[in-house]
Design goal:
This protein has 431 residues and is an alpha+beta fold. The protein has 3 domains: 96 residues, Transferase, Pyrimidine Nucleoside Phosphorylase, Chain C (Transferase, Pyrimidine Nucleoside Phosphorylase, Chain A, domain 3, Up-down Bundle); 211 residues, Pyrimidine Nucleoside Phosphorylase, Chain A, domain 2 (3-Layer(aba) Sandwich), CATH 3.40.1030; 86 residues, Pyrimidine nucleoside phosphorylase-like, C-terminal domain (Aldehyde Oxidoreductase, domain 3), CATH 3.90.1170.30. The chain is built from 16 helices and 15 strands. Helix 9 runs parallel beside helix 10. The two termini are 35 Å apart. The chain binds uracil. The site of uracil (URA) has 6 residues, from helix 9. One of its GO terms (cellular component) is cytosol. This is Thymidine phosphorylase. Homodimer.
Length: 431
């Protein structure tokens, strides 16, 4: 083959054969296919799509560019431990992994969460956990296995040998306007998740202003594509479509999200965070064949015990005070009204502007930075009442962010005819 011929095939709306895809992915990792050729191909794929067979082979080729993890030997008390993994396509205030991983692990299921860092307006699970003094994201393979057998949950950074073709391709897509392709997103996410080697996978596919997928039809197509990819390789995969038009919970940032996750683990916390944590936990437990109600483990402290063990196993002090911001400012309602919307994208951008996220991979994030909301859709506010408090390190970051917070809030003068209700879980996709 030649790269140019294969680019022409996709440009003209044709399909690539299995050997052609293997050759392309291998050639790209080895450097025989140049960056500019892969960029042109990615654009042709974004414009013309890939069929199911192409996406499936593309995913397998990216998995085969690296190592697959194997958890089949995990044992506790002589019994094989089932493994279940969760993936979210990314949102604002999405701290669900923090309470979810220990909650599911508290039921005797191993949860290996290989997670990422934030880029752009969505946060990263590792950045959030690094707000905990001492906590380390780097866990070697032996510790990963040991921690799964003892504690049951690990949240850590993925090693470089997990789908390296995807790492290279994702970096290229980020700078060539080719991220927003369902075929490329589905194969990117699923190559990493399948290589992680869990028995089952639960996907949280976000929909709305704060998500990649702005409408339900696109989110459903992405979910169906990913569920099919998992099912093809015998990883039991289900997906929930969930709302990301409004941030999850009240806290958006790093340390403040850890604090909110701990509230959930203590049996309290915002109702939307609790609802989604329990919905995903039920999916994960069902996939592992466990017939128990996860709400019990939030009430009786088992999930909190597992959280503390998980944090301590990675060097963190679960009882330490979390970093506090040097500068805080409270944004207040400009007039009386009813909150009918809090735009997740604006709030995510605000948290980013405060230092909670990064613009380039090598940037450092501020643990103490973030936005804490005081009013959510449905709340009635009086003029001067707090809408949100911003947390950061320097006053100069605050000004532009305050405007974003005002933009994020939609206030109406009159009580809406129907109550402002949020449908958090919009759909479920199974094979
Ligand atoms: N997350 C990924 O891992 N890959 C994508 O392509 C998009 C989001």
């Amino acid at each position: 083959f030649t790269a140019v011929d294969l680019i022409r095939t996709k440009r003209d709306g044709g399909a690539l054969g299995p050997e052609q895809i293997d050759w392309l992915i291998d050639g790209y990792v080895q450097g025989r296919v140049a960056e500019e050729q892969m960029a042109a191909l990615a654009m042709a794929i974004l414009l013309n799509g890939m069929d199911r067979q192409e996406i499936s082979r593309w995913t397998t080729a990216m998995i085969d560019s690296g190592q697959r993890m194997d958890f089949s030997g995990l044992r506790r008390n002589g019994q094989r431990l089932p493994t279940v993994d969760k993936h979210s396509t990314g949102g604002v205030g999405d701290k669900i992994t923090l309470p979810l991983a220990p909650l599911v692990a508290a039921h005797g299921v191993a949860v290996p969460q290989l997670s990422g860092r934030g880029l752009g307006h969505t946060g990263g699970t590792l950045d959030k956990l690094e707000a905990i003094p001492g906590w380390r994201a780097d866990v070697d393979h032996d510790q990963l296995l040991r921690q799964l057998e003892t504690v049951g949950a690990v949240v850590c950074a993925a090693g470089g040998d997990l789908a390296p073709a995807d790492k290279k391709l994702y970096a290229l897509r980020n700078v060539t306007g080719t991220v927003e392709s369902i075929a490329l997103i589905a194969s990117s996410i699923m190559s990493k998740k399948i290589a992680e080697g869990a028995d089952a996978l639960v996907l949280d596919v976000k929909v709305g202003r704060g998500a990649f997928m702005k409408d339900q039809a696109a989110a459903r197509e992405l979910a169906e594509t990913m569920v099919a990819l998992g099912t093809d390789v015998s990883v039991a995969t289900t997906a929930l479509l969930t709302d990301m038009s409004t941030p999850l919970g009240f806290a958006v940032g790093n340390a403040c999200e850890v604090a909110e996750a701990q509230d959930v683990l203590a049996g309290g916390g915002p109702s939307d965070v609790v609802e989604l944590t329990l919905a995903l936990a039920r999916e994960m437990l069902a996939a592992a064949g466990v017939d128990e109600d996860p709400a019990d483990a939030l009430r009786d402290g088992r999930a909190m015990d597992t959280w503390r063990a998980m944090i301590a196993a990675q060097g963190g002090d679960p009882h330490a005070d979390l970093p506090q911001a040097a500068v805080t400012e409270t944004v207040t309602a400009p007039r009386d009204g009813v909150v009918t919307g809090v735009d997740a994208l604006e709030i995510g951008m605000a948290a980013w502007g405060l230092g909670a996220g990064r613009a380039r991979k090598e940037d450092r994030v501020l643990a103490e930075a973030g936005v804490v909301l005081h009013a959510k859709p449905g709340d009635t506010v009086r003029q001067g009442q707090p809408l949100a408090t911003v947390h950061t390190d320097t006053a100069s970051r605050v000004e532009s962010v305050v405007q974003r917070i005002h933009t994020a809030y939609t206030l109406t003068n009159t009580q809406p005819e129907r109550p402002v209700a949020r449908d958090l879980i919009l759909g479920r996709v199974v094979a």
